Amino acid sequence: MALKSINPTKTQSWGKIQAQFETIKSTHLKELFKRNPKRAEELTVRWDDFYVDFSKNRITKEIIKSLIELANEVDLKDAISKYFEGDVINTTEGRAVLHTALRAEKGSEVYVDGVNVIPEVFEVKQKIKNFTDAVVNGKHKGHTGKPITDIVNIGIGGSDLGPAMVVDTLQFYKNHLKTHFVSNVDGDHYNEIIKDLNPETTLFVIVSKTFTTQETLSNANSIRTWFLQSLPQEAISKHFVAVSTNIESVKAFGIDEKNIFPMKDWVGGRFSLWSAVGLSISLSLGYDNFESLLKGAQKMDEHFKTTDFDNNIPVIAALLTIWYNNFFEAESEAVIAYTQYLNQYATYLQQGIMESNGKYVDRSGQRVGYQTGTIIWGEPGTNSQHAFFQLIHQGTKLIPADFIGFVESLHGDKDHHDKLMSNYFAQTEALMNGKTEAEVLAAFKRTNLSDDEKQKLLPFKIFEGNKPTTSILIKKLTPESLGKLIAMYEHKIFVQGIIWNIYSYDQFGVELGKQLAKTILQELNDDAKHTSHDTSTQNLIRFYKENRK
Ligand code: F6P
């Protein structure tokens, strides 16, 4: 059954939330803490190894209650069942959305077109495990008999960002294999990567759900040409494997059927790292770590599916986005992770969040009359404190931020970790409390400034504070906790899409540029004077053609 189409702004709760917004919009977070001494406790969710503190958000329990009423009015419960049960909720592409089935427990049942897909999921997982073990322990050798030392993942978007982010984030758990990612069609990208590689000891994993993506096929073709300069055609079978739904095109590329790791069309690209798309994760970290990643996600699935909304981490997180995006008119959200390991996390989330919820047509085919998808961005702390934090503290924009931190450091450097985490705690406190006039004046007393100088400086030194943050504190960065964290954001995306009444699982918006690029590519290589473009584009193309070598 399809998802319902309910305009959220026409619900009873929307009006109620609007009224609540009017009463709270100028209230300072400090005041909310003063009014309710139990606030921190009441607005924190403890689950497994996660401690999620929502209390530094500009909400109250009553507002959360109204936001939950909104979720109920749009029938989020029904949508969650449809999501997990394999209903065709990606209606515009006529597909189910079942990345959750990829991490389901053995023996579960999830049906697509009357067929339980779980046995096949486990068959592919077994294939991933067998291949991983063979490559890692050196049983799988290259064409000249040497063991594999390097893995190159060739893919883009969901066929790159998820695996690249996970491998980088979990590098502490990595085995001896060196992993590289080629994504951009920019030839400098693949050339930089292959320049130090030995084809005899390198395994190339071509990942493309459709196997039609220009970037991936160009990179794969160029790399194969480079490879064949040193090794014969029959070496391909030892050095090239592929992950795709498009088995025929992979075979036509020259890859043996036994070297194809299949995936299903009910796995969206940006949610596919749990499928065979995660092959390079498994190869880099070992299969057991890949399995732990899946286990973590499965635990978050259970939490999301079975927990009441008022204690449900992805649901509350999504409702907060609605609150800031649609009532405070905040346009973006920051994700600041206090671990260098999560360096690529915001980039990864950008595809998940912005490709999913960047839509202006609702599920009835009408243009929405309200804001949808948020802009997502971020960098790890503490580096970002020295880059863009000024704007979050004293700029004119409201930027709700997620602060992700870990109790334990992986290398166990307590001194550094305490310093790191003192910043983690200090920043959310500073963003909330700001610095009052009285505090600035008190600080001035310890200086030699004249009264005149103090008066002049005063307005610049005051911080309004009242900047909302959510603190996500996790015991330790492990494959399992990362699996939970990723799944948490996946479900947050889903809930937002349900409430905004949009289809989160297609991405037609990225197609137009691809089509135009195809036409322009032909024009770049002929001598005709093309006049079909606007004059700006025409002149740019002309300048490029006239000046290239
Ligand atoms: O950017 C559009 C997109 O279709 C993404 O959704 C997808 O992850 C990416 O291209 C790569 O697609 P494929 O895996 O089919 O090569």
TrEMBL record:
Pathway entry: Carbohydrate degradation; glycolysis; D-glyceraldehyde 3-phosphate and glycerone phosphate from D-glucose: step 2/4; Carbohydrate biosynthesis; gluconeogenesis
Catalysed transformations (reactions): alpha-D-glucose 6-phosphate = beta-D-fructose 6-phosphate
Protein EC: 5.3.1.9
Pfam families attached to this UniProt entry: PGI
Keywords: Cytoplasm, Gluconeogenesis, Glycolysis, Isomerase
Keyword set includes Ribonucleoprotein: no
GO molecular function, one term: glucose-6-phosphate isomerase activity
Domain of life: Bacteria
Cell location: Cytoplasm
Enzyme active site: 355 (proton donor), 386, 514
Keyword Cytoplasm: yes
Enzyme class: isomerase
Similarity comment: Belongs to the GPI family.
Function statement: Catalyzes the reversible isomerization of glucose-6-phosphate to fructose-6-phosphate.
Name of the featured protein: Glucose-6-phosphate isomerase
Gene: pgi
